[in-house]
Structure formats: structure tokens, C-alpha cells
Design a protein that fits this description.
Blueprint: E1 3-8, E2 11-16, H1 18-51, H2 55-82, H3 91-124, H4 135-157, E3 162-164, E4 170-172, H5 180-214, H6 220-254, H7 258-276, H8 278-286, H9 291-313, H10 325-328, H11 336-344, H12 355-360
Antiparallel strand pairs: 1-2, 3-4
Pfam families: 7tm_1
Membrane topology: Multi-pass membrane protein
Transmembrane segments: 26-47, 59-78, 98-117, 137-158, 187-208, 229-248, 268-289
Length: 362
Amino acid sequence: MGTVAADNSSLNCSVDHSIHQMLAPAVYVTVLVVGLPANCLSLYFGYLQIRARNELGVYLCNLTVADLVYICSLPFWLQYVLQHDNWSYSDLSCQVCGILLYENIYISVGFLCCISIDRYLAVAHPFRFHQFRTLKAAVGISVAIWAKELLASVYFLLHREVVEDDHRHRVCFDHYPLEPWQRGINYYRFLVGFLFPLCLLLAAYRGILRAVHRSHGTQQSRKDQIQRLVLSTVVIFLVCFLPYHALLLVRSIWESSCRFAKGIINTYHFSLLLTSFNCVADPVLYCFVSETTHRDMARLRAACRALLTCSRTGGPREAYPLGTPEASGVKSEEPELLRKLHSTSQTPNSPGGGGSPTAGLA
């Protein structure tokens, strides 16, 4: 069990998938159990950011929607691996689930990059580039990212993605060795989908760290918080996406024989499973780290406790208007951490202390 025969000209390559069938169920169940509620909360808090006229909320919501759409496809992949890599649905459903699996990587990368650049502009250039830090601009950029990835996914619909192995199992989205059409799209995915955004992300966060170090009015604890967020984001980005894209490039350049495919396939499948943990990491990094989110979560917990108490006692329920920006603790379009940093870069002659620069960014 667990082998696939690739219908690739005269080659008949049987590859062992046993390690994939052992690891994938555990990974998919973990992402479902942890990622689904975490992303639902992330979507709620991103909505609160949008209500507060914060463009970061647009990127957060789009990032969360991309994760949730991928999570919805995991039951199909879970059934697939539990049936020893036998796709029991239609060929079109295989293509759609494969597109959701792979394109979620690049949609996530795109919005992570947008969040990085937005935070760099907010910290390093709080009084410039205002036109790029509005809700309208964020919506336009989000539409462009989705359109780009959906158009790229059409390429996969033009090719057959279901083949039969030597056990007559219908294998979905696996070709060994790679077919010629796959090499070109893999180079595009590596260069445009991963390497270019990674360079932008590293450049943006280098600028953030330099701006933090130059700020003498910010408390050391707040500087440390920014630096931990920067480091955590880069580390998770590299852990989730770098191994997969490195092996994708290696396969595209050197995989021309069945022997090579057999030697790399287990490592390749492990790196692909790592990308799924991005759905768990995203809400932790970009939703639960801000002080406004901590206050929202505290109010949400208080509301839940009040509802449970009232349901047991039968008493009246206290209203918690969590849907309003005032009740959620979101008082401006910037997280409090960045507002504190903005105030340090205000010129000495600026009126109103540290309040007016933040208000001017809305």
C-alpha cells in the first residue's frame, strides 16, 4: 500500500507514501481542532479592527478567510490519507482541494507581506504614505492578491491531477517524477510566490527594528514586545514555508528519474505538512498579541461567564456591546503599541502632545 505510479511518458515510478499516511492524519486533526476556533476568533477581532477604521483589520480578515477555506478542505484530505491515498471523489474535486491546499500558501504569504509593510510604514514613516494606509487601499490590495492567486490556480484546472497507482488507487495531485508543465509553474511559485515576498518581509522588519532602536521615548518593555513579534513572525514564516519551497526548487531542477523521486519524497511530504501549521500560527501572531485584543478577549470571557451564570440562575442578562469599537477597547486605528511609538517621533513643535499624529493617520 501507499505507492503511486506516475503516468509520465515511458516512466512508471512507484513511490512509497507510508510516512505521509502516518503523519498527515495527526497534522490535519491538530490543525482542525486548534486552527478552526482560533481562526474564528481571529476573524471576529479582525472585524473589530475594521469597525475601528484600522486597515490592518482588512488584511487580518483576508488572512483568516484564506486559512478557514483551507481548513474546510482538510476533512477531504484526511479521508484521502486514511484510505491509503485513494481519492474517492470526482477529478474536479481533487483539483479544487489541491488548489485550496497550495494556493492558501501564497495567499497567506501575500497578506503576511502586506501586514509587514503596513507596520513598517506605521512605525518608520508615521506621517507619510497615508494614501497606502487606508481601508480603501487595503481592500484594493486584497482584491488584487485574491485575483492573482485565483488566476494562477486556473493553470491547474487545465491538467489532469488524478492518476491510478499499482494498487488501482486514485492518487490526487501527485506526479513522480515531475511532469514538464509542473516545472515552469514551480519556478513561478518559488520566485514570485515565496522569494520576492520574503525579501519584502525581511526588509520591512529590518526597518521596524531600526526605528525601534532609534526611538528613545519608548519603554524598553514595549521595544522588547515589538522585537519578539518581529522575530516570531520571521521564524514562523521560515519554518512553515522555507522547507517546502526549498524542496520544491530542488525537485524542479533535479528530479528527472524515479530514483531521485524515491529519495526525496518523504522529506518533501514532511515539508508540505509544515505549511499547514501556518493556519494555527497566523491568529496567534497577528491577533492575540495586541493589547486591544487582550481587552476584547477579557470582555468576551466576561460576557460568556455572565451568560453562563444567568442561564443557571435564570436572572436577567447583562448586555456587553462587544460589537462596538468603544466596548472592544479599540480607540483608534492603531494598536496601542504603535501609538506609543508614533508619539515619540512627533516634532517638538507639534501641538497636542502625542494624540494628533495618531488621529491624522486614520
